Amino acid sequence: MKTFTAILLLSLITLALCTADSDASLSVPDSQSVEDFFVKRDVASSFVTRRKKRNADLTLSPQKLESLSEVCELNTACNDLSDTVGIVAAYQKHFGPIPV
Predict the structure, then answer these.
(1) From CA 79, how far away is CA 94, in angstroms rounded?
(2) Which of 5, 25, 61, 81 could form a disulfide with 90 if both were Cys (CB 3.0 to 4.6 A apart)?
(3) Position with higher pLDDT, 87 vs 46
(4) Where is the Gla domain (predicted)?
(5) Distance separating alpha carbons of residues 64 and 78, to the nearest angstrom
(6) What is the spatial distance between Cα 87 and Cα 64, in angstroms, rounded to a whole number?
(7) How far apart are CA 56 and CA 54, in angstroms?
(8) What is the mean pLDDT of residues 29-49?
(9) Could you give the CA distance from residue 50 to residue 60 in angstroms, rounded to a whole number?
(10) What letter would DSSP give residue 34?
(11) Euclidean distance between CA atoms 18 and 96, whole angstroms
């Protein structure tokens, strides 16, 4: 009976705290306009950097793929992952970038 009372009390406290937080978030003043959220394209491109994908144009020889699969077969998690996503993705997930 004490456990039931404690659970009921904790659930009421949680409910009261959740409704108090949601009421506070609704009362935020509308001082921000839609223009505050959008930035012009030339301004946005000045602080956003594009990253190049590593190994994007890497073509692997059959010998290199065999080497990767032998390394990956020794790790059970890598071996299981290679069955679903492929040997290259599994190797990169577990061992990092492919050495060239």
Answers:
(1) 10
(2) 81
(3) 87
(4) 64-96
(5) 17
(6) 11
(7) 5
(8) 68
(9) 25
(10) G
(11) 43
Between 1 and 29, whose confidence is greater?
Answer: 1
- Identify whether the C-beta of residue 55 lies closer than 8 Å to the C-beta of residue 97: yes
pLDDT at 82: 92
Query: Tokens for 5?
Result: 């009372």
CB hemisphere CA count around 64 (13 angstroms):
9
Q: Rounded to an integer, what distance in angstroms lies between the CA atom of residue 32 and that of residue 59?
A: 50
- Per-residue pLDDT at 93: 93
Closest CA to 71 of 88, 59, 55: 88
Rounded to two decimals, the pTM is 0.43
- What is the token pair recorded at 50? 């594009």
Given a contact cutoff of 8 angstroms between Cβ atoms, the answer to whether 78 and 70 are in contact is: no
